[in-house]
Design brief:
The protein contains 4 helices and 15 strands. By secondary structure, it is of the alpha+beta class. It has a 15-stranded antiparallel sheet that branches. Strand 11 and strand 12 form a beta hairpin.
Length: about 300
Amino acid sequence: MASYTIVLLSLFISCFSILLLSLTLSSVLLVSITTAGSFHQHININWGEERAQILESGQLVTLTLDQYSGSGFQSKDEYLFGRIDVQLKLVPGDSAGTVTAFYLSSQGPAHDEIDFEFLGNVSGEPYIVHTNMYTEGHAGREEQFYLWFDPRQDFHTYSIIWNPGRVIWLVDDIPIREYTNRESKGVPYPSRRPMRLYSSIWNADSWATQNGKIKTDWTKAPFTASYRNLKIDACVWESTSSCESEESTNSPPSKPWMMQQLDDGGKMNLQWVRKKYMVYDYCVDYKKFVYGIPLECKL
């Protein structure tokens, strides 16, 4: 009887230890989530006061710029790898001098950042989609594009896929840019710092429209951009531990974006966009890089 009791006690202790270990691991690992629906659940208005509004029971966000202030929101969580999609309708009419941004960013002077920025223009002239990448606090990786539609007339989907192998910028699921992880060859890549999602609208007429030649016409204010259908499929950062990619396991990834890369159709679409709509590519800006273009441009 005593030995039977000892066996039962040992089993209880073992089960309890496994439970404690499981709870401990859950506090330090990244939790993969998929969220869609109400903006109330996933963002906070972080500046601009009443200029930023969550409307229609959380299904719509508007950000407004006037001569006194812009506005913006940020996600409640931080992420280390994921796919972010949002539908955005840009400022209509004369939007010169304005910038509407949708981006991921970490904190601190050596921060990482992945940018979508939309540079407004005078009526009749197209928006420019400005993309950029910061790694360890350094930017200078700008690429700019026109769009094949008027982004002021209706909502369109803008997406960022960020995984251990690459960053892909997409417009209506068409890739416009890809940045590949080449850390093994000495090129920095945003793979270690968790980032929060941000969006904002502000006045940048010192550079945004035709290199600052066209200033904001405040008689056209307020300027308003609208957001809907935010979808976040990402790893939520819950501790200071490093991110463990699903690439390090032998099991199939639970999130397709974690291993996603461009297939043949995606590569063709990318080349189509870059051939027909690209405005600026930092890799061929020899005036800016007088001592030689960045290493990733040579690989």
